[in-house]
Amino acid sequence: MKTVNMKFRTLFVLLLLGSMFTSCSSDDDVVDDSGDPNPPQGNDQAIILDCDSFQANNADAILLLEDRGDGVDYIIDCVTKIEVDLKIEPGVVIQFTDGAGMNVKDSGSINAVGTQSNPIAFSSAAQTKGAWKGIISSSEKIKNRFDYVTIEYAGAGSLTSNSEPASLIIGANTYFRLNNVSIKNGLNNGIAVTAYNYNVEINNCAITGCDIPIYAEPNIATHISGGDFTGNTTDAIRIGSGHLEDGNSHTWKNLGVPYRMAADLSIVGGTKLTLEPGVVMEFEDTKGIVMDKLFDDGSALTAVGTATNPIVFTGVTKAAGAWKSIFCYRSTSVQNKMENVIIEYAGGAGADGAIEFWTSPVLNVSNSTFKDVAACAVYNHGNEDNPNFSESNNTTDNVSGGYICHD
């Protein structure tokens, strides 16, 4: 079967037979039960979808959900598996009952492309956070796309034990494009993308009323462009464990909220990370940045702010020593540069400096401020001087160990 309407052909036949026994005064004077000679037209009753509606072994599997008019078009009362290529038309409203959800499997895909004036909505009659579980996808198909889609009152969890709970969970190896997606009033995270090997873009999305808007592995941060991530319990893009190790250049944009590091950020394999002016990178307690720890792969960190829009490395806890350090082990890349940067609340978890060196890596730091550091501002392990370190016009404020130190 191609569309949902074919699935309900039996209902249509029964309604047709019923109409044969209905009398009316004339063709131009049709009266409904309310006595209105011109009853409103449109969707007056939502269709409850069977749990196997989108399963591959169902001969009548639904491939298209059509807009049936005003109001709720379809109701899903289970965690339904999408094993076919499902397309959802603009204007469709799907309502999930308590504990229901949607699981897009490897064999399936979901293509929900609405318009600005006619968006697609996934919602719940119970307008409370976590009223339904949400949507999870593990599909690699390039058809997976949400444009002008709203997801609200989801995020109850238990769709999988391999990811953080969220209104939208994107599993390992998944392909997905999210454009102009709005996630509202969800329990837990708005979007969770915490596995590996993704091909995902998150463009111009708005997430509000959730615990955290996005919880992602480091590579995903490169593919978030624009949007509004405010109005949540914690307004931050939380970055979990993982490495930037693909050897490519990554740019983290200023999204108006901090990147919150829940694990050490490892930059290795010749990977280059550039932070735009205004970026705030905040570290949970004892976390930090590590570059080229084992080999000189030429990895680099470029953080060039402006005098009026500096880049900030800070701690979630606003106290000296809350987070660890930026530890540059071996990199000889000339792209290692910090200018108009503020580094604050570093020097904890056994660190000897807010910035630490090993084997004389290349780094230039200028017009920057170190403050409230529970160690040295810069510490060079193993050598009295690092001939590859250049600095100018930097200031310190409440730095307990001094400006430049060494073993």
Description:
This protein is mainly beta and 407 residues long. It folds into two domains: 210 residues; 166 residues. Strands 1, 2, 3, 5, 6, 8, 9, 11, 12, 14, 15, 17 and 19 form a 13-stranded parallel beta sheet that branches. Strands 4-7-10-13-16-18-20-23-26-29-32-35-38 form a 13-stranded parallel beta sheet. It has a seven-stranded parallel beta sheet with strand order 21-24-27-30-33-36-39, with no helix packed on it. It is elongated.
Tags for this model:
39 strands, 3 helices, elongated, 5% helix, 407 residues, mainly beta, 13-stranded parallel β-sheet, 2 domains
Topology diagram in text:
Layout: H1 4-7, H2 9-20, E1 47-49, E2 64-65, E3 74-76, E4 79-82, E5 85-88, E6 93-96, E7 101-104, E8 109-113, E9 120-124, E10 134-137, E11 145-147, E12 149-152, E13 166-170, E14 175-179, E15 182-184, E16 189-193, E17 199-208, E18 212-216, H3 218-221, E19 224-228, E20 237-239, E21 243-244, E22 249-252, E23 259-261, E24 265-267, E25 272-275, E26 280-283, E27 289-291, E28 300-304, E29 311-315, E30 326-328, E31 337-339, E32 341-344, E33 353-358, E34 363-366, E35 369-373, E36 376-381, E37 389-392, E38 395-399, E39 404-406
Parallel strand pairs: 1-3, 2-5, 3-6, 4-7, 5-8, 6-9, 7-10, 8-11, 9-12, 10-13, 11-14, 12-15, 13-16, 14-17, 15-17, 16-18, 17-19, 18-20, 20-23, 21-24, 22-25, 23-26, 24-27, 25-28, 26-29, 27-30, 28-31, 29-32, 30-33, 31-34, 32-35, 33-36, 34-37, 35-38, 36-39
